[in-house]
Amino acid sequence: MLDDGPAPRVRVALTVTNTGERAGHEVVQVYVTDPESTVFRPVQELGGFGVVELAAGASERVEVELDARAFQFWHPEVSRWVAEPGRFGIRVGASSREVRLETEVELTGEVVVPELTIDSTVEAWLAHPVAGPALRAQLEAEPRAAAMFFAPGVGEMMRAIPLRRIARFPGFPVPEAELEAAAAQADAAYRAGAR
């Protein structure tokens, strides 16, 4: 079952069978992966678990509910927990190294658009839904700027620099004096359209 949105809840259900000759118990561990995360996250994180006791040869259905925290990370720019949209992996096993089942779930999550400032990185400006397309068009119109910001390797490094510093480079298509007004206009336009 899937309850999507900014606080997703996912119910993982499976059947566990005791194939041994004696009664026993199993701890069913459910791990979550976020391969598309915009921040560094571990390869997998324990999202929940369930315990089942079974007689020899018996089977039982086990359900483990993953709440929003299983999918969220602390977003430093908005100072709260956020579940991003995207595809998440669900892994089930007896331990983190003994994964027996895998599937994926697509969540709409919550798109967080941090407020732009003149000190936001070029990457943050490009990711902004209003400012991004305009800046990208300006950079792509200049062959040297396009090569600098979108080339493999060097582009990633250049996009990590605050736009204010980049705007000071000779020939940069956006003057530093216009950045503050551009940031305020982009944020206002986004907030007005997001309602």
UniProtKB/TrEMBL annotation:
Keywords: Hydrolase. It holds the Pfam family Fn3-like. Residues 26-96 form the Fibronectin type III-like domain. The keyword Transcription does not apply. Gene3D superfamilies: Immunoglobulins. It comes from the Bacteria. The keyword Hydrolase applies. InterPro entries: Cellulose_deg_GH3, Fn3-like, Ig-like_fold. Belongs to the glycosyl hydrolase 3 family. This is Fibronectin type III-like domain-containing protein.
